[in-house]
Amino acid sequence: MQSDDDGFARAAQALLDQVITTDTLGLVAGEVSIAVAGGQIPGYRAAPAGPGQHPVVLVVQEIFGVHEHIRDVCRRLAKQGYFAIAPDLYVRQGDVSQLADIPEIFSKVVLKVPDAQVCADLDAALAFARDSGQADADRCALVGFCWGGRIAWVYAAHNPKLKAAVSYYGLLEGMKSDIRAQDPLDLAAQLEVPVLGLYAGHDDYVQPEAIVRMQAGIEQSASGSQIVVFPNVDHGFNADYRPTYNRSAANYAWKLAGEWFKDHGV
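RE: above sequence
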């Protein structure tokens, strides 16, 4: 008879088996300090080790912060020739690695993070890349996941010089407050930067009608932005450390994201 412990062990091993681990061979990779207003914030940077001016990708974290999955995304991008950098965008508000669950992360940290701070920190991360001597900061894109997927839309509106952005299942509404003046739905029609939205067909955080309204909004813009919905997958389908991971959807979404960057000069 199978014990509960045996079942848990098999489930845990299945998650471990699906986790992607990208090595640092041929890369320069590791923690960095990024100068921002009032001091420094930590971040993770990965880039090809050889000389050259590499296009930049700003990598924006999930609500769980700059953890190993986000660092691995940076290494994957570096293997493709990018200078990838993921600043820790709410280190001032708290250390989410010490919090128990998503509601606690939201209430104690995420809801206290101003959009203006996030955009300024991403500007600073881009400046860090420019000053490194390894990056062509004029060819810059952004990719964000979950919480960072919302930021992809917000930062695209903030920085019209961004060449392209990709939003993985970013929230489209419901986050407005005195420190978050606009939702992506409010920004859609005025976008200039081409944003590719990659969304899940089953997502408790992003309702289908919100996606329909977002699509209508971006069609009014001159940005050429697009949304792709992956049927029969859940929020977090790219997160290979979570049960919602879907390998087929993740691989195809990654392909679409890479093509989006290339098509827009990054």
